[in-house]
Amino acid sequence: MRIDVLTLFPQMFESPLSHSILKRAQEMSLVEIALTDIRDFAADSYRKIDDKPYGGGPGMVMMPGPVFDCFEHVQKLSPEKGRGILLTPQGQRFDQAKAVELSKEKRLILIAGKYEGFDERIRIGLGAEQISIGDYVLNGGELAAMVIIDAIVRLLPGALGDEDSAKDDSFSDGLLEYPQYTRPEVFRDMKVPDILLSGDHAKIAQWRKQQALERTKKWRPDLLKDSDKK
Ligand code: ADE
Description:
Elements: E1 2-7, H1 14-17, H2 20-27, E2 32-37, E3 50-51, E4 61-62, H3 64-75, E5 83-93, H4 96-103, E6 107-112, H5 120-126, E7 129-132, H6 142-153, E8 186-187, E9 190-191, H7 201-219, H8 221-229
Parallel strand pairs: 1-2, 1-6, 5-6, 5-7
Antiparallel strand pairs: 3-4, 8-9
Helix pairs in contact: 3-5, 4-6, 7-8
Bound molecules: adenine.
């Protein structure tokens, strides 16, 4: 998989991409992540990429020219056309189902904007789908792009040491994850449930399923309502 990110702050990605699973997935060539600075496509020597909104109002709006030029340049870097995604609080809410869907693509082109927003012609003209990572406003799309990359890359076959780990994650079956325990058997008077020490794998699987269901009912009943609707 190839992921391109168009951003005004490529340095923001350095640390998250150079640790843990994201680092290893790139080393294993499961994913290639390329960062391109939108500012390199500014038309003037001041590297201006935003301007005041027509009609007035606070803040600055990203101009269409640099984003279009950057996108078209990036698209040509690889033969695969790629799925364009604009990070914006106005987008469709990102969730695990979307992560699974996107993890099957050969190429994604993520566009992270800064400041108050994008000129509307960027959305219309690029035909990119809009994704939001939640109902709150970030200072820019960079952190949202990192969240999406993180959630997708761990789903790529071979990214996690243990192939089964992603399957058991919260949300992978529409439920929260069952409780996990490791050593010691007793910690500050809290004991590991006997069933997990029983060695009876069928009973353990049944217990975990029931626990997952119970905690979903208690903590995230909206997830059960969502699955009813499907
Ligand atoms: N840019 C600013 N806020 C955002 C959000 N919630 N999701 C995606 N991109 C954003």
